[in-house]
């Protein structure tokens, strides 16, 4: 069931999303060679708590951390650790969120560590731009397929692939609500978009095949061919004035 949000509920969600965006920005600014993924996770959790929120990933389905931190060929759900250090030349995807007064925010971004390859730069740029192509289509009266088609077309025209196995989703009192928001699809198809819907649009874009596999820790998803992956996400509200990005820092 899709749950539409009232104006009051949207105001609460805006605070959850503000905290989520602030935590993501803080972690992105802290990424540098030598820092551990565990330290980045600690920074995110401390920030969220100080802002009056709660880390909504921690404990969700048994996930052990505040942030998913995925490096290079890791697509999503990388588990932070005190031992894993980030290196120059890595690309690091951070996905995190916060809850506030019963409502949730969710966002993600991929960061370059020092000087990275031109190919990696182009992958990150394309993934971020594809997110905004999808957001443009998140309009009252449209369809979920309009969003996925816009993302897929933008990505594939540039020689990349969009992950099929994992998709975006509704957000609200639960971190994951209906409807699913695929990063692929046909325009004019799928659930009708209406005012009051709040969704997470999150392209996961691979340099090679769109196929992925899950590691033995039962969380971390990697590309099947070992090539790089990037991930960007915003929580977006459907309004009569067009899409509103709630997680804009």
The description of the largest β-sheet is:
5 strands, antiparallel
Helix content: 25-40%
From N to C, what is the helix and strand string?
A: HHEEEEEEEHHEEEEEEEEEE
Oligomer: single chain
Give the number of domains. Answer: 1
**In total, how many beta strands?**
17
Could you explain the architecture of this structure?
This protein has four helices and 17 strands. It has helices spanning 7-30, 37-50, 118-136, 144-157, and strands at 54-55, 67-71, 74-76, 91-96, 98-100, 103-104, 107-112, 161-162, 168-170, 177-181, 198-201, 204-206, 212-214, 221-223, 229-231, 234-239, 242-245. Helix 1 (7-30) packs antiparallel against helix 2 (37-50) and helix 3 (118-136) runs antiparallel to helix 4 (144-157). The chain is globular, with a radius of gyration of 17 Å.
